[in-house]
Amino acid sequence: MATTFSFDIVSDYDVAEMNNTIDQAQRELGNRYDLKGTSASLSFRDTDKTGLKIIGDSQYHIETIVDMVRKKLAARGLSQKILDISKEPVASNLKVSQDVPFKKGLDQDKAKKITTLIREHFPKIKTQIQGPEVRVFSPKKDELQAIQQLLEKQDFDFPIHFTNYR
């Protein structure tokens, strides 16, 4: 009987780690000399923690806070690609605010991009798109490890993680 091994490719983030990251960034924000006495603030945009709400007195404050969050993400081993900073900051009442949602889930285009890449390099490997994730099957664990290394080297515009090893 031949056994088949598999793993899932997902685009997700650990909410607890994200919570710790933002908590550290908020503490640093309170201690930063260049941001003291300003309206600079950082918080989650909702109770589900699906993004950030950044407020500052100028565009410089917004960029400084985003850079601070990126450094905290890197220190905790999280991908900076989680942050979707494509939305432009909004200026009103002498304050600038920016809504930064977190990228989560693989849509059909991203999943197809991953499966096409796997099939180009490993034609015998089976892949299956299952909603927001891609499952990869192989009778050899070595091939699965090679696929993970291949995907880690790719520069996708979204974060990927490997879960559900079987």
Secondary-structure class: alpha+beta
Report the end-to-end length measured between terminal Cα atoms.
16 Å
Arithmetic mean pLDDT: 87
Largest sheet: 4 strands, antiparallel
Give the number of DSSP strands.
8
In total, how many domains does the architecture comprise?
A: 2
- The poorly predicted ranges are none
The quaternary organization reads as single chain
Q: How would the global form be characterised?
A: elongated
What is the annotated CATH architecture of the largest domain?
A: 2-Layer Sandwich
Q: What Rg is obtained from the alpha carbons, in whole angstroms?
A: 19 Å
Question: Helical percent range?
Answer: 25-40%
N to C succession of SSEs: EHEEHEEHEEHE
The CATH topology of the largest domain is Alpha-Beta Plaits
Spatial sequence of strands, sheet with the most strands: 6-7-1-8
Q: What percentage of amino acids are in beta strands?
A: 15-25%
The number of distinct helices, counting runs of at least 4 residues, comes to 4
Name of the top-level CATH class of the largest domain = Alpha Beta
